[in-house]
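User: Run a structure prediction on this.
Assistant: Running it now.
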Amino acid sequence: MKTFKTTWHNIRRSPYQAFAAVLVMTLTFLFISFFTFLLYGSSKAISYFESRPQVTAFFRNEVKQADIDNLKNELMVTNKVASSKFVSKQDALKIYREQNKNDPLLLELVTADILPASLEISTIKIEDLSAINKQLLESPLVSEVVFQKDVVSVLTSWTNALRSIGLGLIIVLSLVSIFIMVIIIGVKISQKKSDIEIMRLIGAGGWYIRWPFIFEGISYGVVGAILGWLISAGALWYFTPSLSAFLKGMPIFPIPLIFFLGLLGAEILVAIILGTLSSFLAVLRYLK
């Protein structure tokens, strides 16, 4: 209890330095939170597009249902297909009518006979799309193949690049935070050198002197993590309606509460590690 009182006293005696330390940690964890939300949204978007039909094969008019079933079975035995859906001519007409229900002229011009039957296919892995596309193109039953690889591939590439850049920036920000915290706590140790000498003269142990500074670094880290999390979570909550409208029904929002709480717990743990490390380095450097 005495250690915590000493820590609180040290923080109160130098509020500007404490504010600077908390601000640095808040900015670090604010970026970490936004980066995590961005990665979460990207992964959900990729999962959404992966679950959609990625390859659509349109069949020739003279193709029989038995031949289509055989082709479907050939695709399934490759163990690359996650799901497949056959769309008959009548089903295609229903879809067409639903899409153009407000234009009677277009409805009159189109019948089931002129619409091709199709097979909508989703693969287990994005890498399997090319092989399935090639197999369909080589089939004499197929007249045309619509290959929607670009959307998912571009999104995956952006996510991978974002992950690499974000992790790099997090490492840099963490190092900067540790460096600034070492300086701030080092200055505090220098300001209390006379008090530390008196404590040593009356028999205080080394760790008894060190612990208040270590707890001070942990306090800055934890407070910064909580503030950064609150700001990012509040901003995300505020913009959720606009983002949901922009993404047009993509199932990303609302983000589960357990995800927010898990992120908060992880950030507090990281804050304790960063605070402990930075204050311990300061103690080793300035308190000999």
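The first helix runs from residue 2 to 13.
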